[in-house]
Design brief:
alpha/beta; Rossmann fold; seven-stranded parallel sheet; 50% helix; 10% strand; globular; GTP binding; Gpn2
Amino acid sequence: MTKFGQLVIGPPGAGKTTYVDGLSQFLPAIQRPITSINLDPAADEPPYKPDIDIRDLVSVTDIMEEHHLGPNGAMLFAFEYIDINFDWLEEKIEESENEYLVFDMPGQVELTTGHSSLINILEKLKKKLDCRLTVVHLTDAQSVADPSRYIAVCLLSLRTMLALEQPQINVLSKIDTLPRFGDLPFNLDYYTEVQDLDYICDYLNTQRHTSRLEGLNRAICEMIEDFGLVSFETLAVEDKLSMSKLVRLTDRACGYVFQGEMAEQDSALSLFTSVMGNLPSELDMDVQERWLDAREDYDEFENQLWKEEGEAVAESETKRRQQPQREEQQGQTLRPTVNTYSGSQKPIIESTKKN
């Protein structure tokens, strides 16, 4: 059976485990079971209970004691061990009845930018288990508050995309914490779209501690723009619409079709409603307004949207149970389910974009 899923990567503190914990609650809540896999041999006890835990096979602590290695060396050794003993992971995954997998990765960037073991593991997942994964690369949103750090993040994202050669979505996580870092030099959509990086180079040239690196900064920015691969989505784990949008994007990237209650209906209809359909305000939501200028208004709007959605689903379910015979006579019709949306429009808010 073909399996789909996400490989969640990113530097330490980017919110990988928090995101996986959020998925382990969010997806089952919409009747979408998943198999969570902790692939971090050095992890403390995660807030979620992994269905498969690589620490049952290998532990960084044990490797450090046995081979007298440091933390980073032990981590690389651990992934080489996982690569050699892939049969263990293969057997655990085959035992899982769920077709959607979520891998929680460690934060060492060496694994995702230059080490062959992870690439080998991904290749084996693809060939032996027919796994189709989307890489979700998380980065703490506070990186956009420091332009030089933002350039480094763009470069790391590009390097990861070229190294892993998998569908990849780059994400600015913890976006709801961004206001605490003060005003940004540019609107937030400038950072998410990663366009016209000359502007950020010009800004860095006005800063005393980065002006001497003008040539290096401009060369890196030109390389990122030449590839044209890097862009960012935004994520706040506790925001339902933010999680929904990111899940929808990962589904599109790996080709996963979540049918749910639509499984009994036409497969083409399932495809276009669960994968290709737009989310409310998905195409025209202004991230600057959503997360910085008018966050409270959007929060209130989304709370009302989800309340109305829940009431609509409950009402539809009640009617369906009360009128089973009538539904059979008229044939199956598309009805609201927990993975569809009401289609409400975003609130009308006066733009406060910076010039």
